[in-house]
């Protein structure tokens, strides 16, 4: 009786949803609670390993650590998958063949983290010295030692680079399998594990690894465990990502900076020219006015539309948090906005402002545009629409700085370049039977709504899985929304880590 | 006979206009040619003295040098005029009372120069080590020693900071008086000399000096010897300056930088907001669309209009030089443009471009505007027109960063500040009898047209002379158009220096 009482108390402390629906989920939660001390001890050791993608020696230590985690738990064929390019961090692979299983799930997370600037972290924090706090630091959390008795509370947080993005994913996936086995349960799928080491660097060699190990990496579905849960605090499953491509525009005027008194309003001003050009790309309701910009979009299916309608609104919460009282695209919710292609100004510069400002007419003005793409868009075609618009505004478009001849010939001259290839959007249909099973599995972990997002606003190179493996993907994030990923003071909420184990295990087991 | 031949040869070498109209002018030219060696030797010593306004010790040496130049030539009451503020460079004063003279001319030039960045100067050049070249460096001029026999050619150039802007002015004014006296001629006016030491720093203490020494500085006309002659190569007289005032605009959006994928085109983009705002300030023909922007302008007199019509067109020459094939204000010549108030973007910045660019929505966007003013404009009223326009575009205008309350209340928030007080325009009527005499005097020095400009495009604090002394001013530049003033490789063309002496002397003597 007393033992039962303790179990329920601990359970309440580190998992969110006490009234889960399936006995399997209850069992996994119990395992998590009882083994929290060891799970976090190992996680903490993992977080001590610096994991910047540009440091191959550090990355090798992380890869070795993960291999050891898997081997200890009886995962088979544990190995490093290397790219053809020499000296880049390998992916770590392992697999489990389950008797009687007919389908294979492959679980993805990444072990590299964003570069760190220790000076930006809060006092007392070091990116690679994980510390436990009683809450988020900006909510008054204080540093406490890791408890010797292994009893953790769900609102506690571990601060370290990679704590949420994405070593938490690796921890949750491997421990989910461990929890299933140690609890005497069994997966319902063959399982594969794939942990990348270059995601934060833009996955520059992922295509090499996928192409080289095509047959090893065959599966029925990739489960991408990365990113935060919904801003409402609800779990979410994301079925796609937007694509992305950049354009840098540089408008040229006089060859040398001019005295604004002697030549102002006679000589062309590149900042004003650029302002007019950018201004012509959107109307006053925030819609892009470039011809055909919203064409090509593959419409959402009925199921996707329904899911989108059910996404909890965080618009007012986010407006308050961001200190804004109006949105750019009038009458469009955040959920709707991320299902459309966008045109966004990332940066804009001409002459100087502030203390360096001088009474001059600058020689050029530059803007960087970021075009997010949805399913149906092609990054080259979308870029070309922008270029066609610029031409229709009377510009001579070139990819290089203008020559004297061009300057003499054309009144309006612009250089348009793209610093890298674009990435198309990817979206997996919610209707697929295996996807329906995943949704059902996640539903067994909570009584709350599961947010089903047709796409996330951001971009991941998920098209690579489609391109090189003809694979389907679905993204299931576990980190808390306020995890500070990519920035200083990155953290994972204990409750989210353990709910992550429960979610991954429920997917592995679901029949 | 041989002597005559040499005289004409030398005369041809260092002065532009051999067929001057008056015997006095011929005499002064002869003096210049015969004394070129000594004049340039002294000028060169002067150029060795560093003359940055922020260096009071260096400036004192310059002031002492000028006092010595004047004393040697018998100029009287030579003294330093100090501001009330301690530690700022003094003005250098001197005067000559001419028997029978009823009117007084006061000649102005400044001895301070723009700050220097020696690294930007051409190889072999040091800002404060004057060197002689056979032509402009960018036209293939080569360095030669200063000739021992004092025979200079008009196309030669001296390179040094201050060579043209504005130690050439001081040199021309003092040597003009010297040439008159040494040639046995006489001035027709009482003469005063006023050489400022802080012009390039924006004359921050000039008003103190003028106010403190009001009675000493009384005159009938200030002759401002500063700046370059007309781009056509013709001499010019300038009767006014434009005023100027700046405004810095900062549009605010989200409090923290946002991921452009997750929030782009939902959250407001400050760069796009600023682009639209700036764009609303001008139409496609380059006219300012701000309500009442061109009101208040005092129309040009008939004489001023006629003079303006006669200004040689340099538009095509400048377009070629600047590498532009169209102007901002369609159908308006450069001469016309500088007789109108302007709105110019000096600088614009939001987020980052180039290597620092990231896929973000910036938190703010800033632009610096420069408003040039013509006679009739008041800088405060002109600023207010811009602010009224911004309000009419739906902005909440503040002078500080927005508070959370303001962010919640207003959809469009902008900070509008001005870093310093403005300066109004100034213009002296061409009809005044004393002005007519000055024009006639300059005409005696050349058969070419004298360009009469109602105003220059730039701004000088000439309104101070009007305000504190109720004085009239007229600007008579002597430097070559391509003198690189304010920049690296500043230079004076020898011909322009000696023509400057001739012009100043002709004004002093004209009856």
From TrEMBL, chains A, B:
The keyword ATP-binding does not apply. The keyword Cytoplasm does not apply. Transmembrane segments: none annotated. Residues 1-20 form the signal peptide. InterPro entries: Cyt/Met_Dipeptidase, Peptidase_M20, Peptidase_M20_dimer. Keywords: Hydrolase, Metal-binding, Protease, Signal. Residues 247-394 form the Peptidase M20 dimerisation domain. This is M20/M25/M40 family metallo-hydrolase. It comes from Flavobacterium polysaccharolyticum. The lineage of its organism: Bacteria, Pseudomonadati, Bacteroidota, Flavobacteriia, Flavobacteriales.
């Amino acid at each position: 009786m007393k033992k039962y009482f303790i179990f329920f108390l601990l359970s309440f402390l580190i998992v969110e949803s006490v009234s889960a629906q399936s006995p399997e989920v209850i069992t996994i939660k119990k395992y998590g609670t009882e083994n929290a001390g060891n799970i976090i001890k190992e996680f903490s050791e993992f977080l001590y390993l610096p994991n910047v993608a540009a440091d191959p020696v550090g990355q090798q230590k992380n890869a070795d650590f993960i291999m050891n985690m898997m081997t200890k738990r009886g995962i088979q064929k544990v190995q490093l998958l290397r790219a053809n390019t020499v000296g880049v961090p390998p992916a770590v692979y392992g697999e489990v063949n389950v008797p009687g299983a007919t389908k294979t799930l492959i679980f993805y997370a990444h072990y590299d983290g964003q570069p760190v600037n220790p000076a930006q972290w809060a006092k007392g924090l070091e990116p690679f010295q994980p510390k436990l706090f009683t809450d988020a630091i900006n909510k008054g959390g204080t540093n406490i030692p890791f408890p010797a008795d292994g009893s953790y509370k769900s609102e506690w947080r571990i601060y370290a680079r990679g704590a949420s993005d994405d070593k938490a994913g690796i921890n949750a996936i491997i421990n989910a399998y461990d929890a299933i086995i140690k609890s005497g349960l069994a997966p319902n799928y063959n399982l594969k594990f794939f942990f990348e080491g270059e995601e934060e660097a833009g996955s520059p060699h992922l295509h090499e690894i996928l192409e080289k190990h095509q047959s090893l990496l065959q599966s029925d579905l990739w489960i991408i465990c990365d990113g935060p849960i919904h801003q409402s605090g609800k779990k979410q499953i994301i079925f796609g990502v937007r694509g992305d491509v950049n354009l840098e525009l540089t408008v040229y005027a006089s060859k040398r900076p001019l005295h604004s008194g002697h030549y102002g309003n006679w000589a062309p001003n590149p900042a004003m020219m650029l302002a007019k050009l950018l201004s012509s790309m959107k109307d006053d309701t925030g819609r892009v006015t470039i011809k055909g910009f919203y064409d090509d979009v593959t419409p959402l299916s009925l199921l996707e539309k329904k899911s989108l309608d059910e996404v909890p609104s965080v618009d007012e919460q986010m407006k308050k948090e961001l200190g804004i009282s109006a949105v750019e695209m009038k009458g469009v919710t955040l959920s709707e906005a991320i299902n459309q292609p966008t045109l966004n100004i990332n940066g804009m510069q001409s002459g100087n402002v502030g203390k360096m400002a001088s009474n001059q007419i600058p020689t050029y003005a530059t803007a960087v545009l970021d075009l997010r793409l949805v399913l149906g868009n092609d990054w080259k075609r979308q870029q070309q629409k922008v270029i066609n618009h610029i031409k229709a505004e009377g510009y001579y478009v070139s990819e290089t700085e203008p020559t004297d001849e061009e300057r003499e010939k054309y009144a309006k001259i612009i250089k348009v370049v793209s610093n890298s290839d674009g990435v198309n959007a990817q979206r997996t249909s919610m209707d697929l039977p295996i996807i329906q099973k995943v949704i059902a599995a996640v539903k067994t972990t909570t009584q709350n709504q599961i947010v089903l997002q047709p796409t996330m606003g951001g971009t991941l190179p998920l098209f690579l899985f489609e391109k090189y493996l003809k694979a389907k993907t679905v993204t299931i994030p576990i980190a808390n929304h306020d995890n500070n990923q990519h920035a200083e003071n990155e953290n994972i909420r204990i409750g989210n880590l353990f709910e992550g184990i429960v979610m991954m295990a429920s997917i592995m087991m679901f029949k």
